[in-house]
Design brief:
Elements (H helix, E strand, L loop, with lengths): L5 H18 L5 H8 L3 H13 L12 H14 L3 E5 L12 H13 L6 E4 L3 H7 L11 E9 L11 H8 L3 E7 L5 H8 L2 H11 L3 E5 L1 E2 L5 H4 L5 H9 L2 E5 L2 E4 L26 E4 L6 H9 L5 E5 H8 L1
Parallel strand pairs: 1-10, 2-3, 2-5, 3-4, 5-9, 9-10
Antiparallel strand pairs: 6-7, 7-8
Length: 317
């Protein structure tokens, strides 16, 4: 008779955690021992158990109970239809560690559809980390489209724009938004977004079957500033107005309400929609993004979330 005791399940949880730390986060067994507060010999045995029980193949293949509980709690609290919570290396500063693999797997599920789909993508390190891991496949029947402009004010390209990468991996036609993320004026925004190719791509992105977006913070050094899309004075104004986070350039406060005027008057991105009718999945983790993620969920801008265990614990606390 197969065993299914609580002790056995907890040991498999520990084995899955150790396997993730070893194979995904690339920790040594000494580092795993320190992080899990166990001996090195125990860490070695847990990694071996993860392999023996086939919990680790090319990816972690064991639904750790706590991660599942957190995912369900987030769905219930914020009205999500999809949520994945992955393990975390508490010492890592990589914003995409762990969640990029999960997001890539979710993207691949959509890309394997026989019928044509439109996949829309935001930008950011998490989304770029995900598309870097999407398997090569032939998907000429699909389309991939950008949700956000690909140019900085100086005309340089956004280095985290994922459209080219995923297009190369899948062979799907690419539809970028070759406009500045933030125009210099509202009139300029209206003019560039009215251009026929740009307008068609914005319309295409607006009816995408699935979208994946990063969630940006509005702290003292957010991507909007460090990537050159806004100035320090513009950031200070957003913060003074209560800015908590941004999605594809659209800034919102802690209630999830868009901040009127200011930078939002000049954003060229596809407009955000509250309670989207189609899957609109955020991919983000980390203490620096916690306020932004919570605000995005509170504002009901997302239908799904991919995050890590520590971030999820804070969101449901």
């Amino acid at each position: 008779m197969p065993r299914d005791t609580k002790t056995d399940r907890l040991r498999l949880d520990d084995a899955a955690r150790a396997g993730w730390l070893y194979y995904v986060a690339q920790n040594t067994q000494d580092e795993i021992a320190a992080k899990m507060n166990i001996s090195r010999q125990s860490a070695q045995r847990l990694v071996a158990l993860a392999m023996r029980e086939r919990l680790v193949k090319f990816k972690l293949d064991h639904p750790i109970a706590r991660c599942m509980e957190l995912a369900q709690a987030l769905q219930d609290r914020f009205g999500l239809t999809f949520c994945e919570v992955t393990l975390v290396d508490p010492t890592s500063q990589d914003p995409a560690l762990g969640i990029a693999e999960v997001a890539a797997a979710e993207m691949e599920k959509w890309l394997k559809a026989d019928g044509p789909i439109v996949m829309a993508l935001g930008t950011g390190r998490e989304i770029r980390g995900a598309v870097d891991q999407v398997s090569r496949m032939a998907c000429p029947q699909h389309k991939v489209v950008s949700l956000v402009g690909s140019l900085a004010p100086d005309g340089s390209a956004n280095v985290n724009d994922p459209i080219t990468v995923i297009g190369d991996a899948t062979g799907a036609p690419r539809h970028p938004l070759a406009v500045p993320v933030v125009a210099t004026s509202r009139d300029e925004r209206d003019v560039v977004c009215a251009q026929i190719p740009i307008r068609r791509n914005i319309e295409l992105a607006g009816r995408a079957d699935v979208s994946f977006v990063g969630i940006g913070e509005l702290n003292d050094a957010p991507p909007l500033l460090t990537d050159g899309f806004i100035t320090a004075d513009e950031l200070a104004a957003l913060q003074a107005a209560g800015g908590a986070g941004e999605i594809i350039g659209w800034s919102f406060d802690d209630r999830g309400d868009l901040i009127p005027g200011q930078v939002n008057d000049r954003v060229t991105s596809v407009p955000l929609v509250k309670e989207p009718a189609r899957p609109f999945i955020g991919v983000a983790r980390g203490p620096n993004k916690l306020r932004a993620i919570r605000a995005a969920l509170t504002g009901r801008w997302l239908t799904g979330l991919i995050t890590d265990e520590t971030t999820a614990e804070s969101l449901v606390a």
